[in-house]
Design a protein that fits this description.
Residues 350-475 form the RagB/SusD domain. It is found in: Cell outer membrane. The protein has helices spanning 4-12, 41-56, 72-75, 90-96, 105-125, 134-159, 174-178, 183-200, 211-225, 228-239, 251-254, 278-281, 297-306, 360-372, 381-393, 406-416, 423-429, 433-444, 459-465; strands spanning 83-84, 162-163, 180-181, 261-265, 294-295, 315-317, 325-327, 355-359, 377-378, 404-405. The protein has 475 residues and is mainly α. The two termini are 39 Å apart.
Length: 475
């Protein structure tokens, strides 16, 4: 993705509209629309690549730059019972202690980063008219809509009612930019976009949108809104499309873009333009802010008791501070002298580990969830087959009583997908977040309350809206 950085320069030259809200102070008095940007098919494809650039983010610690998924673990894993900080200080600790402030710079950066994804997708969608070939235009539309749906799905789950911007808007259209709409309306657009993506994509890519990625994401959306039979059908389509579990759990993360990967954000080592720093910063005394995603005692216990072969590849005792436990699924490649199969040359903050968004094991467990259909358990043979495939890969025996309970499914998702940013969303979707977080908070002296299930709308957005935008309760 080295060419994607040139797209940023192009975009800086003209369009600063609603979604790139970092640039809206003061509000501009005039602007250029996307119509003057892309005039050929090749130029529109550079716009597609720029969407992934926004997802990938910038490898630095400047909160004025978009960091895409590189900051997502703060907003998800560290607000669950899976991880915490080492120092218990600064803005990072606000997530751990459930006292996130509306002025939190990490929250503001994530919000702006994903609205940048939406902005770039909208720009592509409004430029499709320059493409002569109808099939190419349909494929580009599907790819842009997949990414827009992905961004909105994360934002609506984290912030609740949010502004819905489905086209490039004039810079002075602050009404659209700052008016929050109901989550149901946001989900309607997400579903529509993903249906288009499923119809228009194939399975060529793993670090770009694909048909299976759109199906898997749509299945997760359907599970979130209670459309279980639709989710089940999508999962079963993926099961028959050639994806398989890696025999060795560690290979999922270090034999990149393998048969289990459905969609990942791609990174390359050594060059700051295409690398990431989050995996180094989960270590001790390596990253710019080291030890920011340490494993909780609660998660260690779950992995030790139920993880099977996955445990050794999920966390380790910190070699420099034995009282702490580190996430190891994304250790910078080459951390042990190249033993992990790749190298970050001499700088761990230039790591090339891809960030996995969707993989086949997740789909198999979603299949179980869809069959369970919001109930307390299932004895379906199809559900048991999917469930046991995941367990067996971890060296564990089949489910012993022929019935999978909701609690068992949640636990299996926890140990299989630990530290991959699923736990918080899973607990909310299963209706268990309130009880789990309340108990975890009480046991660890934290400050959880019901309002913590949503993040605050960044105070910067509230201020810029001049009274249009309201804050979430509790902030």
């Amino acid at each position: 993705m080295k060419q994607i950085k040139y797209i940023v320069l192009l975009m800086i030259g003209g369009i600063f509209t609603s979604c790139d809200s970092d640039f809206l102070e003061p509000i501009p008095s005039s602007g250029i629309t996307s119509g003057s940007y892309y005039t050929t098919e090749a130029e529109v494809e550079t716009g597609i690549i720029s969407i992934y650039d926004a997802l990938q983010g910038v490898n630095d610690n400047n909160l004025n730059n978009n960091h895409g998924v590189q900051y997502e673990f703060y907003l998800t894993e560290m607000r669950s019972d899976n991880t915490r900080t080492k120092s218990q200080e600064g803005e990072a600790a606000q997530f751990e202690f459930y006292n996130v402030e509306a002025t939190n710079g990490i929250v503001a950066n994530y919000y702006a980063s994903f609205y940048s994804v939406i902005f770039r997708a909208n720009t592509v969608l409004e430029s499709l008219g320059v493409i002569a070939d109808a099939n190419t235009a349909a494929a580009f539309e599907a790819e842009a809509k997949f990414n827009r749906a992905y961004a909105y799905f994360n934002l609506v789950r984290l912030f609740g009612d949010i502004p819905l911007i489905d086209k490039v808007i004039p810079p002075l259209d602050t009404e659209t930019q700052y008016t929050r709409v109901a989550t149901s309306t946001v989900y309607s657009l997400i579903v529509s976009d993903l249906i288009t993506a499923v119809a228009g994509l194939d399975n060529t890519y793993k670090t770009r949108a694909s048909k299976a990625a759109a199906q898997a994401m749509l299945a997760k959306v359907y599970l979130t809104i209670g459309e279980y039979s639709l989710a089940q059908g999508l999962c079963e389509d993926i099961v028959g499309s050639g994806f398989v579990l890696q025999p060795n759990f560690n290979d999922i993360f270090y034999n990149e873009r393998n048969s289990e990967i459905i969609f990942a954000i791609g990174y390359e080592s050594a060059l700051s333009a295409d690398s990431q720093n989050f995996s180094a910063e989960w270590m001790n005394a390596v990253g710019r802010t080291s030890g920011v995603n340490y494993v909780t005692t609660d998660a260690v216990t779950a992995l030790n008791d139920f993880g099977g072969d996955r445990t050794q590849y999920s966390y380790r005792i910190d070699p420099f501070q034995p009282s702490q436990n580190q996430v190891v699924k994304y250790l910078p490649n080459g951390e042990s002298g190249g033993a992990d199969g790749k190298t970050f040359v001499s700088d761990a903050t230039l790591a090339g580990n891809d960030w996995i968004v969707l993989r086949y094991a997740d789909v198999l467990l979603m299949h179980v969830e869809a069959i369970m259909a919001g109930g307390a358990d299932t004895s379906s043979s199809n559900a048991l087959t999917s469930f046991n495939m995941v367990r067996n890969r971890a060296g564990l025996a089949d489910d012993d009583d022929g019935t999978i309970t909701k609690a068992e499914l949640l636990l299996e998702r926890r140990v299989e997908l630990a530290f991959e940013n699923h736990r918080f969303f899973d607990l909310v979707r299963f209706g268990e977040a309130e009880s789990v977080f309340s108990a975890f908070s009480a046991a660890n002296g934290l400050g959880y309350s019901t309002s913590d299930l949503l993040l605050p709308i960044p105070q910067r957005e509230i201020n810029l809206s001049k009274g249009i935008m309201n804050q979430n309760p509790g902030y």
